[in-house]
Automatic annotation (TrEMBL):
It comes from Novosphingobium pituita. This is Cytochrome c domain-containing protein. Keywords: Cell membrane, Heme, Iron, Membrane, Metal-binding, Repeat, Signal. InterPro entries: Cyt_c-like_dom, Cyt_c-like_dom_sf, Cytochrome_c-type_DH, Membr-bd_ADH_cyt_c. Residues 38-141, 183-290, 311-398 form the Cytochrome c domain.
């Protein structure tokens, strides 16, 4: 009995030692003028490349002040305040403390951070870039705003458990330069795998929430939307070239492919204001990952068989004629404004209907200065069965892909997810 108690106590102490991280002493809030202007400007670009404001700004809130609800399979997390407020933000954090948070997922006080902060990618960012990002954040206007308490499934609110998660899924180290590739490709690899954290959405995750590295960029889920594969399984009707990807990432639309929707909209908004060479590098790297995808020739017409589709989905044909054809039908005025044909839309061709469903339920907003395709939401005007009927009809009419199975259940599930948190 005594030996058992000693063994358990020793095991507990060992586990505690593995999870314990020391606090880093607070510092006085640095004066904004203490950071070189060039460093701050570089940090501003890096913040856009990392989409910092997207997750760290609550709806209708002050930029970077945190409090945005982030729905996860394990409950709801709320993003932290990244402004230099000394009490509720990072005003008393040193550059060392900031680097540790970004690379190791540990806060200044020593507590483990949840991987909603994608430190599994940020760990690959150079110290110089992290210091520039720190300089940018510390020169923003301080906002006093405390994030709400996280709402997680017990016992996941016990942060020391995250130490075990990191042992399994946090892989540190710099992005290795490939000498056989161009400087542009290597720059793209560094941005995509690091600050851009594209794999955070476009890679499937396991039951513990870790990225399945053996299936990198095979598609994932982001805020209830499907992040399509960025590998050879990409469902595009026409292969993505670096130029097409550049246009899409910069403007939110590629006439031969898709329009940005859902979480991709804010990404495009951020990338529209960074140096062109960085976006081209990202496009070059991602296009290389998708090289060899089974996509048709740009000159090949897309399918359009309304008779067959109406026979299979009569209700969908009626609904489509009333709600969709005015913008998406052949000869519709909207089609002359750079809107991709439905047969080219990746969401309609994907093996998973999630994003096509969400586009109907939530609509699409132009991500850059109000320019580009806009689609109203139909969540309040169409039932789950009607959404399923419209999508079944559209997929049958405009693509050569097999019908989605159990589409009505997928619509119900997507509608529930779109209402969270």
């Amino acid at each position: 009995m005594l030996y058992g108690m000693l063994f358990l106590s020793g095991g507990a102490l060992f586990a505690l030692a593995l999870t314990w991280r020391p606090a880093i002493a607070p510092i006085p809030v640095p004066a904004p003028g203490s950071f070189p202007a060039g460093m701050v400007e570089r940090g501003a670009v890096l913040a856009r490349l990392g989409d910092c404001a997207v997750c760290h700004t609550a709806e209708g809130g002050r930029p970077l002040a945190g409090g945005r609800a982030l729905a996860t399979p394990f409950g709801t997390l709320y993003s932290d305040n990244l402004t230099p407020d000394p009490d509720t933000g990072i005003g008393t954090w040193s550059a060392e403390a900031f680097r540790r948070a970004m690379k190791d997922g540990v806060s200044r006080t020593g507590s483990h951070l949840y991987p909603a902060l994608p430190y599994e990618h940020f760990t690959h960012v150079s110290d110089g870039d992290l210091d520039a990002l720190y300089a940018f954040l510390m020169t923003r206007r301080a906002v006093r705003q405390k994030a709400p308490a996280n709402r997680l499934i017990p016992p996941l609110g016990f942060r020391p458990l995250l130490a075990g998660w990191k042992m399994l899924f946090l892989h540190k180290g710099a992005i290795i330069v490939d000498p056989a590739r161009s400087a542009e490709w290597n720059r793209g690899a560094y941005l995509v795998e690091g600050l851009g954290h594209c794999g955070g959405c476009h890679t499937p995750r396991n039951i513990a929430g870790g990225e399945v590295r053996s299936r990198a960029y095979a598609g994932g889920i982001a805020e209830g939307w499907r992040a399509p594969p960025l590998d050879r399984s990409n469902p595009a009707a026409r292969g993505w070239t670096p130029d097409a990807l550049y246009t899409y990432l910069r403007t939110g639309i590629s006439p031969d492919h898709s329009a940005a929707a859902g979480p991709m909209g804010p990404v495009v908004e951020s990338l529209s204001a960074v140096p062109e060479e960085d976006v081209r590098a990202i496009a070059t790297y991602i296009a290389s990952r998708m090289a060899g995808a089974d996509a048709g020739s740009p000159s090949r017409p897309t399918p359009d068989d309304p008779v067959r589709a109406a026979r299979l989905f009569p209700e969908g044909a009626t609904l489509y004629a009333g709600a969709c054809a005015g913008c998406h039908g052949p000869g519709a005025p909207m089609m002359g404004q750079g809107r991709p044909a439905l047969g080219l839309a990746s969401a309609l061709r994907d093996e998973v209907p999630t994003s096509a469903i969400q586009a109907i339920l939530r609509g699409i907003e132009p991500p850059v200065a109000g320019r580009g395709p806009k689609m109203p939401p139909f969540a309040d005007s169409l039932t789950d069965a009607q959404v399923a009927a419209v999508l079944g009809y559209a997929r049958s009419r405009y693509t050569d892909r097999p019908a989605w199975s159990k589409l009505d259940r997928a619509v119900a599930r997507a509608r529930k997810e779109s209402a969270q948190p």
